[in-house]
Design goal:
about 75% helix; about 0% strand; two-stranded antiparallel ribbon; 2 strands; mainly alpha; 2 domains
């Protein structure tokens, strides 16, 4: 394929803005969009370069699609290009979710809005199950990896083992297996090969990238330390800054894997949201452009809105949303500028690659936990603690089942898995069904 000359910064910025505005459908849709715009339509990047860059980003914590945009922007126009590409990838989603969050807290109690979100929850459950099926087929290719996925599910769902511990244990198991040369861990976590980076793309200064990476580390950690010192450990802003900073370091395996940790922490540990509200946030993230992990912005908004201190609630909520997005994405820029230029050495390390293979298998179990946890809390109104000794999960009371929610979720599952209905039509259909059911119930 003939590679076109590298475009001007102005032209590239317009294309990155277009990608940011059209970036629906989660990482698969966003990566496909970038491939179509950069490789197929404009031929700014060749196929091998694109896949090679994606393999780099798969090794890093954080949303790989946003990091892929940052990395390609850096290769095309240096540090400024990387910052522009990565920022424009998340900016439309940030503005959209902030506006929808404000509408949610001001209009959310209206019957039609409640009914709309009732319908969206069914679609979100179906989308999580769909992601679980797809990832399971791709990432769990043998009995050893299947056992890791099952153990991860049991650990996090039945025994409430913290998400970081599950990921660490899986990584250690894979690392040991890789060192021993076990064939179960010989798979690849990437999306294909690649013959190196295109000669048409310039090679930016790695020292400049390193300095920029250190700058982003400072931009990330300095505000966290300042907030902790100025507001103290009892402030919701301190909790948001420290918790989502930890999340940024451990966010391997895609958004759905991380959201299992976010959902349980936000609902059970901090009490920022109710389970149904977490599903509402996922619905907002699914219907807006940008990475699915932007749902953390909704969490940060509600957390600060409900504990505003001396601030007006909407001002506190907006600051909470900004803070959450800041500590989530500043590390993403840091990982790219510090690590991506040297990531090929990491890919060549057999033991490290095996550790990442095991982590991706564990992610399947973590997503299964997320799907079941959301379903139980969305479809049943009451629960009781498990009677099994040593366990830490809730059992739904069958008498509290919401039949309308179960039927709608089942229909959404059939639409997603059997008929492969797209994300936006699925969300639109279940949202409309929720409104119809809500209006019918109100009429009765």
């Amino acid at each position: 394929m003939t590679i076109e000359p590298v475009p001007s910064m102005r032209h590239a910025t317009a294309v990155w803005a277009r990608i940011g505005l059209l970036g629906f459908g989660g990482p698969a849709g966003q990566i496909s969009l970038m491939h179509r715009e950069l490789v197929e339509a404009r031929r700014w990047v060749d196929e091998g370069s694109f896949l090679h860059a994606l393999n780099y980003c798969m090794l890093l914590p954080g949303p790989e699609a946003q990091q892929l945009a940052t990395y390609i922007g850096w290769r095309m126009h240096g540090v400024a290009g990387g910052i522009i590409a990565g920022t424009l990838f998340i900016l439309p989603g940030f503005v959209s979710i902030l506006a929808l969050s404000i509408l949610y807290v001001t209009l959310g109690e209206l019957p039609v809005v409640e009914a709309l979100f009732f319908g969206l929850r069914a679609a979100v459950i179906a989308l999580i199950v769909q992601a679980l099926v797809r990832l399971g087929r791709r990432l769990v290719g043998n009995r050893v990896l299947a056992a890791i996925a099952v153990l991860a599910f049991v650990a996090i769902f039945m025994f409430a083992v913290p998400f970081p511990v599950v990921i660490l244990l899986a990584a250690l198991a894979g690392y040991a297996g890789g060192r021993a040369g076990h064939p179960a861990f010989s798979g690849s976590i990437g999306h294909g090969g690649g013959n190196g980076l295109a000669e048409a793309l310039p090679q930016p200064s790695t020292s400049g990238a390193a300095r920029t990476g250190l700058m982003f580390l400072h931009l990330w950690l300095a505000p966290v330390a300042l907030i902790a010192v100025a507001l103290g450990p009892d402030s919701v802003f301190t909790d948001l800054a420290t918790y989502f900073s930890k999340l940024a370091v451990l966010s391997f395996g895609g958004a759905y894997a991380v959201l299992a940790w976010v959902a349980q922490a936000a609902v059970e540990q901090f009490g920022w949201l109710e389970p149904g509200e977490m599903l509402d946030g996922l619905g907002l993230a699914e219907t807006t452009p940008g990475p699915l992990i932007m749902v953390v912005q909704f969490v940060g908004f509600l957390a600060a809105f409900r504990d505003p201190g001396l601030l007006p609630p909407l001002v506190a909520g907006t600051l909470g949303a900004v803070l959450t997005v800041w500590v989530t994405f500043m590390p993403c820029f840091a990982w790219i500028f510090l690590g991506a230029p040297h990531a090929e050495r990491l890919r060549a390390n057999r033991a490290l690659s095996a550790a990442l293979v095991a982590v991706t298998a564990a992610v399947v179990g973590v997503i299964a936990n997320l799907a079941l946890w959301f379903a139980l809390h969305s479809l049943f109104a009451a629960h009781r603690p498990s009677a099994l000794p040593g366990t830490a999960f809730d059992v739904p009371l069958l008498a509290s089942a919401d039949r309308a929610a179960i039927l709608l979720a089942a229909a959404a599952l059939v639409a997603a898995l059997r008929f492969r209905v797209g994300v936006l039509p699925l969300l639109g259909g279940t949202g409309l069904a929720g409104v119809v059911l809500g209006l019918a119930g109100a009429a009765d």
